[in-house]
Structure formats: structure tokens, C-alpha cells
Design goal:
By secondary structure, this protein is an alpha/beta fold. It has helices at about 5-20, 35-45, 85-90, 120-125, 130-145, 155-160, 165-180, 190, 215-225, 245-255, 265-270, 355-370, 375-380, 385-400; strands at about 25-30, 50-55, 65-70, 70-75, 80-85, 105-110, 110-115, 210, 235-240, 255-260, 280-290, 300, 310-315, 330-340, 350, 375. The radius of gyration is 24 Å and the shape is globular.
Length: about 400
């Protein structure tokens, strides 16, 4: 026997064990948004030690709400929780009481107001029709006049769903502002989820469960990170940029057995294959010395001339009341401006066209080769996710990996 080689192997074996023991955490979670918070809660519920980092100075990612004049302001855009998934609803309601908010936005076209989603109120205002059959006939007639049989793009898909008049007034301008591209160049699937109803139902989501967490989303996420039933431990470090430098990333990685990364997948690989495209959003938020600005939580501006896509009046997500149930004398509004993403901007919506889909598939191959890293969430998977789908995906990921 080669005693020297034997002792060398023993030394390497114990060195590997020592390195394993040196790991302070079972998981490093990059991002404290909804996906990360769910995974953290599930991991620590099973006794794991977790380090959470976020480059922002606050938890909760894009669902972060900050208090202004006793109003929970959705700093990164309106978030309305809705789901038909009872498992997800039962899970998320462990961490917050939800109010009964129903999303019923209004469309403003050059001062003309229309009900959203498209329903009999919309059709009556647009055409003067009274019955569902009259509305259906009008849509069918306009689709026929447009010569559409098999929709090839968003414009044709929209006309086939609601007719030319509604497309021109309530869809075209808004959509082209939102995506920065002509509707004829956008894929049809973007608008297939658009609710169209031959009833007077103006509940946009029409989900079994929906609402806003009382006390705001930040409070809900904080409850997830401080669940009293947790048997593991959690440390949260804010203002920490995981990708600030290779050395910083290596140091953070060395502290945990596995990494759950919820940032942009192309940023993780330093854009080595090129940039994936996103749409970004800029918000102009102001406090007004009036109790009521627009009378609704969301008003979409659907003409092309108005530079913003919509105005959110945050107090109406909670019926204009503070946490004590008292009327709030002021209001806070946010105008939203859609823009093309560039490095340094916050990426909001992935541009899921054929070109970007092919590039993401290449990044996905690189991600799959990172055995220690789990890529999850809207940015990590380059996928538009509703909040309930984020929760479901994180629960599934945790169940399969912890």
C-alpha cells in the first residue's frame, strides 16, 4: 500500500468535511421578494439556516409597500392578489388578513370613461347596444369587416375578440405605450388573457379569492420571514448587491450550501450571451391635499397622446380607510410610464417574443449546469408571473429541493 497516497486521501477527505462544516447557512437567498420569502419560510420551517440578502434597503421586492399619510403605497406598481388555487390561498392567508378589494379598473380615452374588463357596460357606452346578442353581433360584424380569420398578431387578436372600435380606443394606444412596439409586431398571445364578458360583471380577475393584505404587502412578507413556527434561523442583510463584484459573490456563495437566486438570469452570467429584453416602468408619485383624486384605484389612459399608461390612487385598495377604519383626508397617486429597459433600470416585464425566448433557452442551459444554484421567480425564469403563480412555484421548488 502507498502510505503516502493513503494519508493524502485521508487529509483531503477531512478537509472536505471541514469545509462543509464551515458553511454557516444551508441556503443563501438572493432577493427578499415574494418567491424568496416563500422559499425562506419553507426552508426555516424545516430547521434550515438561511441568509437572505437584497440590494434594496427594504424587504418584499416589487410588492414592497411604504406608508405615506397612513396609506400603504405600492411603490413598484399595483399588486392585487388573486387566485383560484385554494392551496396557495390557504398558505398566503397564514401571514395576512386580506380585505375584499375587487379590481374594477376604468379606461379613460380622451375624457371618455369606459368600464374594464370589457363587458356590457363597455359595449353599451361604445355602441349603445342593450343585449348581449347585440354586442356579440357587433363584434362579429367588425371582425368580418376587418377580414380576420386566423389572428397573426396582437392587433388581429384584439379585433377578433372585441371589434375594431374598442381596439382603436381602448387597446391600441395603451398597449403600444406599454410595450413600445406597434401592435402588429406583438404576438397575439399577449392579449388572449384579456377578459371579455357579455355580462355586466366588472370584476377584472373573477377569481375565487382576491384582495389586498391588510397592513400592506411589506407587513405580510415580514410575517413570512418571522413566522413563529419556524424551527430554523434566518438572517437578513439589506443593501447587499450579490453581483457587485466577483469577489463579493464568491464570499457570499462560500457561506451557504445552496443559493436561491431570484435576480435577472442574464445578469447572473454577466450578460455573456447578450441582454434579454425587458420593459421597465417609471413612477411619478405625489401626495395630494384632497381626499379623492379619481374615485378608483386604477384608471388606464388608453389614448396614445397621454404619456403615462395609468394612474394608481393607492388609498382605494383599502377603501380609503386607515388601519383604524378612519377616513384618510389626503391621497397619494402614482403615474406610470412604460419604457424600454436598459442596464441600471429595474426590469419589470420580460419581452417573451421568439428572439428573447431563444436567448433565454441558452441562458437556461447555463443555469441548469449551476448545480449549487436554484433560479426562480419572474427574473430568474424570465417569465411573467402573477403573484399566486409565484407562490405556487416557490412552494413546489421548496418541496423538491429542501
Amino acid at each position: 500500500m502507498d502510505i503516502g497516497r493513503y494519508l493524502d486521501n485521508i487529509d483531503k477527505k477531512f478537509t472536505r468535511k471541514d469545509k462543509t462544516k464551515m458553511k454557516q447557512y444551508d441556503y443563501l437567498i438572493v432577493g427578499s421578494g415574494l418567491y424568496g420569502a416563500v422559499f425562506v419560510q419553507q426552508a426555516t420551517a424545516k430547521g434550515k439556516k438561511v441568509l437572505v440578502i437584497d440590494k434594496r434597503p427594504n424587504i418584499a421586492g416589487n410588492v414592497y409597500t411604504e406608508d405615506i399619510e397612513k396609506i400603504h403605497v405600492h411603490k413598484y406598481g399595483a399588486h392585487i392578489f388573486h387566485t383560484n388555487n385554494k392551496k396557495v390561498w390557504n398558505y398566503i392567508t397564514k401571514f395576512a388578513e386580506f380585505n375584499r378589494f375587487t379590481n374594477s379598473p376604468v379606461a379613460n380615452y380622451k375624457g371618455e370613461l369606459y368600464s374594464l374588463p370589457f363587458n356590457m357596460y363597455t359595449f353599451n357606452k361604445m355602441w349603445g347596444v342593450i343585449t348581449p346578442q347585440e354586442a356579440a353581433d357587433k363584434i362579429k360584424q367588425q371582425k368580418k369587416e376587418a377580414g380576420i380569420t386566423e389572428p397573426k398578431n396582437l392587433e388581429e387578436q384584439a379585433i377578433s375578440l372585441v371589434g375594431t372600435d374598442i381596439y382603436e380606443k381602448l387597446i391600441k394606444g395603451y398597449t403600444e405605450k406599454q410595450w413600445g412596439r406597434p401592435c402588429t409586431e406583438l404576438p397575439s398571445f399577449i392579449i388572449k388573457r384579456l377578459p371579455v364578458r357579455l355580462t355586466f360583471d366588472n370584476n377584472y380577475f373573477n377569481a375565487l379569492y382576491q384582495g389586498i393584505p391588510e397592513g400592506g404587502y411589506t407587513k405580510m412578507v415580514a410575517n413570512m420571514l418571522n413566522d413563529s413556527e419556524l424551527s430554523g434561523s434566518i438572517e437578513v442583510r439589506l443593501g447587499v448587491d450579490y453581483l457587485a463584484s466577483a469577489d463579493a459573490k464568491e464570499e457570499l456563495d462560500s457561506q451557504a450550501e445552496k443559493v436561491v437566486y431570484t435576480g435577472a438570469i442574464d445578469a447572473y452570467f454577466d450578460y455573456k450571451l447578450g441582454n434579454l429584453e425587458y420593459r421597465s416602468v417609471r413612477f411619478e408619485t405625489e401626495t395630494l391635499d384632497t381626499p379623492n383624486f379619481q374615485g378608483n384605484a386604477a384608471v388606464n389612459y388608453t389614448d396614445a397622446e397621454t404619456p403615462w399608461t395609468r394612474i394608481i390612487e393607492h388609498k382605494w385598495f383599502e377603501f380609503g380607510k386607515d388601519e383604524n377604519g378612519d377616513d384618510i383626508p389626503k391621497t397619494v397617486i402614482s403615474r406610470e410610464y412604460s419604457s424600454e429597459w436598459k442596464p441600471g433600470d429595474e426590469p419589470y416585464y420580460p419581452v417573451n417574443d421568439e428572439k428573447n425566448g431563444a436567448l433565454y433557452a441558452q441562458y437556461k442551459e447555463l443555469a441548469d449546469a449551476e448545480r449549487k444554484v436554484i433560479f426562480g421567480g419572474r427574473l430568474g425564469e424570465y417569465k411573467y408571473y402573477d403573484m399566486d403563480a409565484v407562490v405556487a412555484a416557490a412552494l413546489d421548488c421548496a418541496a423538491n429541493n429542501i
